[in-house]
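Database export, one record per block. Field names are fixed; values are copied verbatim from the stored entry.
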Amino acid sequence: MHRYARAFVAVFLLFSFAVSAKIALEPDRGLLDFGAFYMSGVAQEQGLDPYGVYPELAANTGENFGHTDGRGHSPNLNPPISLYPARLLANVDPDDVKLALNVVSALVFAGCAYALLRAYPQHRTVQGVLWIAAFGGVWYTLWLGQVYVLLFALGLGAWFLIQRGTHPLMAGLLIGLLVAVKPHFAVWPLLLLLAGHPRIALSSFGVAAAVSAVPLALEGPGIYQQWLEAAQAYPRLAFAGNASIVGEAERLGLVEAGYFLSIALVMTAAAVMWSSRATAERASSWGIVVALLASPIAWIGYGLLLMPVLLSRRWQAPEWIAALGMTGLWFALGLGEPFFAASLVLLYLLARDQLVRSETTNTADQARTQAAERQQVAA
């Protein structure tokens, strides 16, 4: 990259970092998403549906939920396993707990950033460090009081284990925990399985199933029905923070087309993995990118898992375009399209790499065939 371009990128990233931090750490922003966890616990304490929305009950708590549209609080859209930690919030000060969660998230993210820069030393540059600091997903997480950084740590741990080719069952355990909390990431172990990595994939599915069976055994199947009804009724797929195909299609008024394209993407990725028998690392890259694009809801915070996919590459123009689309400036401006476009760029890069590998393999096969034919003629 030309020195003037490097200087411009550094200034842009520094500006993005400053704006993101100012927006995300606004002290009067309210509980926002953390309020969903809190109200889920309050609802359970009062014997109500933990996936319901209760504006009057929220108003009676005296808490600031940060919403001005009359909805009171956001619904908890996480699977039933999330209800057990939510119960602990009913009798505590939610502002204090949200602050503690954000502090833990910041420390965990700092540890993850250190691990990434250690694993990919080519990005130990001013621009690389600023990009990590300005990444939109982390500021989105701190703004909302979400758990996305903790889920990122699970996924990153699995990524490193897969990259090193060690402890496949441990990698499967970490992915399984991620899938249990965010089921759309099941695409990741699915593609690993189709690519020929059953130990990681099957252990992932086993852990996710075991964790998900706990509320089924303790609460009965009705709790899953309540969760699915809440997820299906969620009215804000078009919210700017949703960077999936369905989210973008909803913003364009083409939600049915969005679901069709999402299904087609998963099927295409599955066929590619099955036919190519990709390495576990390449299958993981595909799994993460496809899971985010094809999910009905893929909040920008989920996009933290794209960091190792991008940092593991040598950055040229397409990678820089994707990287700049993932910065927190767009989140601060209320725009989801740049992050969605960045995910599409990553998908393009993965598809291009796959085509290059296929052509290289075909050329090598043809060369071996011709050599064998020449040996037969000579004999």
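Remark 1: The mean pLDDT is 94.
Remark 2: The two ends are 54 Å apart (CA to CA).
End of record.
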